[in-house]
Input
Amino acid sequence: MKFDAGPNAALIGEPGSRKQLATPALIVDLDLLEENIARMAGFCEAENIALRPHAKSHKSLEICRRQIAAGAVGICCATIGEAEVMVAGRVANILITSPVAGNVKITRLAALNATAPGLIAVSDHPDNVTALNRAAEATNVALKLLVDLDIGQQRTGVTTAAAAFDLAERIDAASHLEFAGIQAYGGHLQHVPEFAARAAAAAEASQRLRDVVEALNAGGLDPTIVTGAGTGTYEADTKLGFYNELQAGSYIFMDVEYADAALWPDGGQPFEPALFVQTTVISSNRAGQVTTDAGLKAFATDGPVPILAQGAPNGASYSFTGDEFGCIALPPGSEMDLGSVVECVVPHCDPTVNLYDHYHCVRGDVLVDIWRIDARGKY
Output
């Protein structure tokens, strides 16, 4: 069944259609997206490390397929709802990176595991392991499980090497669970601006991971998968030699949060911003500013403000003035006409994506396709 592509569907293929969209519109520059996917895939191939990119960044079957075609071993999902959508779309080898708790979700996980090739989940508590084993036993299909290890984010994960080893032993002894390895993600490190400072922090945080891996190896519980890292730490974490799999996600889009974070030792940025919100000037009655139709409901607001990428004078800046309204402050002597179209680099890509139903896919100045954001709002 064909999905509703929204009010801009008639513009597909029309010359100049990129600037004719009904706004606010979420735009993906396909040339830049493809370059970003290829660069990360090339890095992982050169470093002989597996890539399992995080689909929470894009929530899109089409993008998952492109990442896997480029060499990814599978994908990550943050929630059981995201994983259900991806499995229904015939994506295999999914890792659910958040612990699944509560009877309803655990039952859903067991049912999904019975039909999903290569599904892996994580756990950080003995009681959760018991509940997962009971649910897997009811389906008579073993569930692969990673021990989730906290390396400093203080969100989920066991907090000591001893607790990690004990949990791995419990998983290994369970009748319908299979110990598959360790997850150690340092989300708190991803946006440290200076590369050297971020790399040093990653090395310090990984000491707990080193202790866990050594204890497991010594105890005969070799972790097949050691997974983690993100767009901010992928290079530094790879060099540590503990990880054999990367979970980077934001690299495909980039955003304002990553704009000031040097991702490479020389201070360079290997990935280009490929995700934009397009907005239109809807009022221009006040000197020094114009009002747009993209406000608090058009962008994630948990971080910085959007950066103006194109369509506004140099020196202009963006701010929010309401749910549906944005403001562009103009430099002295500048004006913008009513109906002017502006594109903004998004502040934080993951939650911004979750505000939209569609990606408007462009090449140059042409709208070439519209993709559904398949797992929007799935928990």
Remarks:
- The domain at 9-28+270-372 is CATH 2.40.37.20 (Lyase, Ornithine Decarboxylase; Chain A, domain 1).
